[in-house]
Amino acid sequence: MSDLSGQVLLPVATGRRTLAELRRLLRPQRGRMTVALALLVAGTVAGLVTPPLLGRIVDLASSGASTGAIVLIGAGLVAGALGEAILAGWGVALLAQGAESMLASLRERFVGSALRLPLEQVERAGAGDLTSRVTNDVAAIAEAARSALPEFSRAILTIGLTLAGMAVLDWRFLIAALIAVPVQVYTVRWYTRRAGPLYASQRVAVAAQQHHLLATIDGARTIRAFRIADEHRARVAAKSQEAVDLLLRGVALQTRFYARLHVAEFAGLAAVLSTGFFLVRADAVSIGTATAAALYFHGLFNPINVALALVDDAQVAASGLNRLVGVADLADSATAPPANSAAAPTGAPQAGPAAAPPAVLVSGLGFSYREDRPVLSDIDLTIAPGERVAVVGSTGAGKTTLAKLIAGVHQPTAGSVRVPAGEVVLITQEVHVFAGPLADDLRLARPAATDDEVRAALTAVDALTWVDQLPEGMSTEVGSGGHTVTAAQAQQLAFARLILADPPVAILDEATAEAGSAGARLLERVAATALSGRTAVIVAHRLTQAAAADRIVVLDAGRIVEQGTHQELTARPGPYATLWQAWSDQRPQP
């Protein structure tokens, strides 16, 4: 699915697929749900003794019975009310617990799936699509699990058992009550045909609104610098108005829905009262029985309205559930072995029995974000274990794209990328500091790391001194709402995570570019330490990084045009020598 802005939205599951997922979630909760339904049935039956007991009181009063008999019936009413409250409350609690457990499983699967999504696909969908599913859709499903499901279950049981009670009084009362059913069925069908697409459109509109809002907030400095705030404000306002318009359409639809339900109620009640009048006049039933029938039908108003009104909540929850399951299924399909799998390629040439396989093997690589605009073409690159390769080139040459392909962020459109060495870690110039204690931020790379190992990693990246000076040391809250770290310090933490993760292959995509000159010198020293003993691909922001590499690969217009050591490339005319000369002329001479 895509919208007018060119986003390719994340997929939405079909209703059949969602039902299958619900059955899977329900399987571990079957016992609890069965007991809950049994308690709800018992509670509903206890509550349904009220209309016939009230009818009995009418008959006793009209026949001049003693006060004691009426008091005894009143005691039965109290017992029925207490029984209904206890049994129904217990059943609702168990049902809600089961629903919450299912919701917890769904949340865990969704979060795990979202974390496994290809970053390329998340970027194409935009931040708003995923965040709206995490927030709005999960909230709608949670509300349905906590309140709508128990209320709906009680309502359905009450309706079914009440109709059965009317049939026990006299089958003609049941026939009269069913006069309302055609109107109700037509109303629900009319509503569901319109509500489903409308709520789906609302979800997409809210996702688009959040996407534009987040993009505007993230780019606030750039927007102010280029004085295009009015344009972005208008764009956010337009998306917000679209979401509001769809919400108002939903409110209007609900109003018409309830109006039609009221017509069904009054028609059914009139039919039951008329039936009671004729049956009493014909001495077929007593006044008390006719009263009980009328009370039964009147008692259906609330559960019927609840059940039908919850169709609205069900539509919202189903729309959100379809979107969550769509993400989960997409992530499952994305776990198939990618082109940069750790397995060595079948038939790969080996120099001999003792030759070590390459750490990275790129063969005939091609990639394009759009079919008519190739970014990389015919890239062949073999990187030996422990080799440090710098990738240089002018802006737009394809350096970052090559780094992301080796890291597995993107999948090639032609050729292959294989990393027989195993895990790859990518560090870019924009690193994230997670909210929470600083030590927990670092342990994301290795949860089992001890305090000594964390401190050793901080020492290796020259960060332990300033970390120990924080208010609570490694326990200091950082990230959103916590202690603010500088750009250079954030990169030091990223390199510390790299050391703790200890991958065989590391990729640095201009990882020192945001730190400023002084910070860059520190980070270049830190990077050298963190990369020690690893295979490294470095997208070089400063040519000093390239000069220190074992090999330099020069990209131009998406192709490799040169490669060799710094000494080899500067000794002959070529693109790298030109870059080095231009860069050196801008550096102060010693």
Automatic annotation (TrEMBL):
PROSITE patterns: ABC_TM1F (PS50929), ABC_TRANSPORTER_2 (PS50893)
Localization terms from the record: Cell membrane
InterPro entries assigned: AAA+_ATPase (IPR003593), ABC1_TM_dom (IPR011527), ABC1_TM_sf (IPR036640), ABC_transporter-like_ATP-bd (IPR003439), P-loop_NTPase (IPR027417), Type_1_exporter (IPR039421)
Transport in keyword set: yes
Bilayer topology annotation: Multi-pass membrane protein
SUPFAM superfamilies linked: ABC transporter transmembrane region (SSF90123), P-loop containing nucleoside triphosphate hydrolases (SSF52540)
Matching SMART domains: AAA
ABC transporter domain sequence ranges: 360-582
Source organism superkingdom: Bacteria
A matching Pfam family: ABC_membrane
Ranges for domain ABC transmembrane type-1: 35-315
Keyword Protein biosynthesis among record annotations: no
Keyword terms of this UniProt record: ATP-binding, Cell inner membrane, Cell membrane, Membrane, Nucleotide-binding, Transmembrane, Transmembrane helix, Transport
Protein's name according to its UniProt entry: Multidrug ABC transporter permease
Lineage of origin: Bacteria, Bacillati, Actinomycetota, Actinomycetes, Micromonosporales
